[in-house]
Amino acid sequence: MDRGSFSSSKGDSADFEQELTLSDKLKIFKSSQFDPEAYLTTRCQAMSENEIRHLCIYLVDLKKASAEEMRKSVYANYSAFIRTSREISDLEGQLVTLRNLLSTQANVIHVLTDGARIESLSDGPESSAKVDTVNFEDMEPTKIEKWLAQFIETLEVLLAERRVDEALAALDEGENIAEEARDQRSLTPSTLLSLQISIMEQRQKLADQLAEATCQPSISGVELRSAVQALKQLGDGPRAHTLLLKSHQQKLQSNMQSLRPSGTSHGIAYTTTLSQLVFCTIAQAASDSLAIFDDEPAFASELVTWAVKQTEAFALLIKKHILASPAASGALRSVTECVQISLGHCLLLEARGLALTPILLKTFRPYIEQALNANLKRIEMSTAAIAAADDWLLTYPPVGTRSLSTASLGSMISLQPKLSSSAHRFSTMIQELCEDVGSLEIMQLSEQTLGGVLQSFNSYVNMMINALPGSMETENLEGSGSRIVKMAESEIQQIALLANALLLADDILPRAAARLSSSQQWNRADEPPRRTWDKQNRPPEQRELKRRLQRLVDQLRDSFCRQHALELIFAEDGGVRLGADMYLSLDGGRDEPEWFPSPIYQELFAKLTRIASIASDIFVGRERFATILLMRLTETVILWLSDDQSFWEDIEEGQRPLGPLGLQQFYLDMEFVILFSSQGRYLSRNLHQVIKNIIGRAIEAVAASKIDPYSVLPEDEWFADVAQIAIKMLTGKANFGNVEHDASPTASVSARSASSVHSHGSN
Known about the structure:
With 763 residues, this protein is an all-alpha fold. It has 30 helices and no strands. It has helices at residues 22-30, 36-44, 49-76, 78-121, 126-138, 143-160, 164-184, 189-214, 221-233, 237-256, 267-293, 297-329, 332-347, 357-387, 406-415, 421-438, 446-466, 472-475, 491-513, 531-536, 540-569, 581-584, 599-618, 623-643, 645-653, 660-679, 685-704, 709-712, 716-730, 749-755.
């Protein structure tokens, strides 16, 4: 039910009329020569306002499709990007370590070189050197040597007391002094080397202490950020970032150990707690990473990779402990509520640049679909179980045990349609299904759900067709695998079947399906339907659903008409009541018949009158459906007569030709049908034309026997009068007390017909 590509009747939009791939659609916009103003001028100069509006809609949809395609492309290659970024980050760390080692080696070589140069410049024999050495050892420590000893002692104290900030300041001070001493040569090589080695050792010791501190379960958020920040200042950023994420993961695992899934009944509480815990931890980790490391690509990539792993682990837990069992049993509401809670917490991370929703959608979608399909099957089974004992009487939905005031009860009843018990169950379950799926619009399950709703309604319509006595489906029920339903014996029950289908297809199901789309402002289920809603505000997929639902209602209506037509045409023993013999036998007797419509047409009129009376009470506000029902039933009988080859073979080619009396009776029957259909306002043009055609065919059959049919037929007014009198008599409204009997052909036809025993003279 996708919108599809934009099309226009104008030549300027011819390139949109074909179904193209997204790449082909975007090709024109990728060109370096693309000029938006020229494009719009070319496209829109010959378009009407409506076509321009459709073009705008098409371009907006194309923009959305392009953005979605780009997002899919990014996620398709994101793992490779993350892996490459991680390798680059590791390589940068190794380069930093290598640089530190090379710097240390250079310092050692520099010190050794200075020492060798000093020894080569010294004068005197070896004994003099020994004397100098002895004198050097006997000398008291210089001021810088005393400072060095005190500096190292201070560092050790600061590290022992875990005074990180002061230790970092002391290390920075020592590095500055060492740098100045090396540049100014104010320290002896051995002293400088000792200072540098001491600084490196204390730096490494501080880094190890900080790393150990980040792994402590009891470390607070402030302490963690301080330790990671200090570790970064020591020049080990990659390690610091990894330890930051590791610490958050340890806290997450520790907090998750206290959570235990306690079954489906508590699945929502477990999902809420776990979801909040996981995504709050990810949010805090992202906040800490951004605050300490800013938006450096390497660290951002590591954060995304870590967040993806935590989200995948969370999704697997929810799938295993919460979704699997309800999805298999069709508990759609439990599944959708848990998924909605998870997605709600996950979507909050998008403000921090973490789009983790696709991970949850990929994991949860199969279980949503499984729950949806199982729920649809459960709807069919539950509806069939009630239909097996449904009395097919229309009632308001059950109020329930909740106490309601008289006013509120009356208001609620006035808003609810009257359905049979199985239709009420079907309506309730479908509305709940659409409401549950509609809460997960991001899953884009509308099309699949609409298809399921249509299939479920088709199954229910087939059950109601089986409930019609004498239907072909019912006759072949044994061994066919069809569901057993309770028969609708009376006409009231059978019309109730039609009311079920009509109300579901025309109002309840479209409004329930409208909940699948939040972009439109639909009526709530407890609001009365508005006629403007039907035609003006429904999107294309809703209109298509309405048409397909209506076709299923038409199937039930046609089955109803066919069943009642067959009841009239065929007797219980299988004989045909509407045969040619009822007209051919009239000319074989001595006396003229009593001019009155044939019994089968009297029964047709009586049946249509009863159905019209019942329908006027049931189809309040939907009188057009009742009119079409009466029209179709009448057409079914007359069309059967028109298409009955054996009937016309006996009339046209039989051994006994159709005589004047038979033709007159046939003409009277057809005029009777035309009159009561016209008065009931269900005489269609098609029915009127078919009747005229078969009357003409009967007249031609008489003319073929060399009898002038128009010379033996009374005037049209006679048929109209007799038919009108028959209608009054059949409805109990006739009053012939003042009508005098006259057997003359020119006498009042009304009087002749009212007598019911006199015939008019031949011409």
